[in-house]
Amino acid sequence: MSTVIKPLTGMHAERSQVYTAHLQNSLLPELEMTRHNLMIMENDISEYENLRGKIEELEKLDGNSIETLTEMGAGIWVEAKIPDTNVITLDLGYDLHMDMNLKEAKEYVIKKVEILKRKRDNFSKKEEFLVWQIGQFHGALSQPDAR
To answer: Where along the chain do its domains lie?
Structure first.
């Protein structure tokens, strides 16, 4: 038994080109960017949750001094003594820094994690929708009489 391969009709070939172009130029790059943003959100959430843990460790010190290693940059570390652990400086972004007591800093970090998780959830929903759309386009491309 042999299979007869029918040539693409002009209209189907044209639609296939349009679908393929949309996949390559729009949907796939958008999916890649969405997944990249998801990775960034996961990393940011992890960093802020780590920071919250460190703030909780500082709270246990009850304002006493602490000796620690501090990175200066480029993998260079120095021993440092922090005489007062009641106030820390948070980098809020856009080259903006703010001194906060530990309670304020912890509240800020908790709120920031909530916001980042909502952003992550939005990117996850967008990723799910894009994967669905791509699946629909692949289905349309595989059907000889796509309309």
So the answer is: 10-61+102-142
Give 58: exposed, middle or buried? Use CB within 10 Å, 0-12, 13-18, 19+. Answer: buried
* pLDDT tens-digit series, residues 38-51: 999 999 999 999 99
Cβ neighbours of residue 100 closer than 8 Å, sequence gap 6 or more: 87, 88, 89, 90, 108
Radius of gyration of the chain (CA): 26
Which residues have a Cβ under 8 Å from the Cβ of 52 and sit 6 or more positions away? Answer: 106, 109, 110, 113
Question: What is the C-alpha to C-alpha distance for residues 32 and 126, in angstroms, rounded to an integer?
Answer: 11
Distance, CA of 32 to CA of 39 (rounded, Å): 11
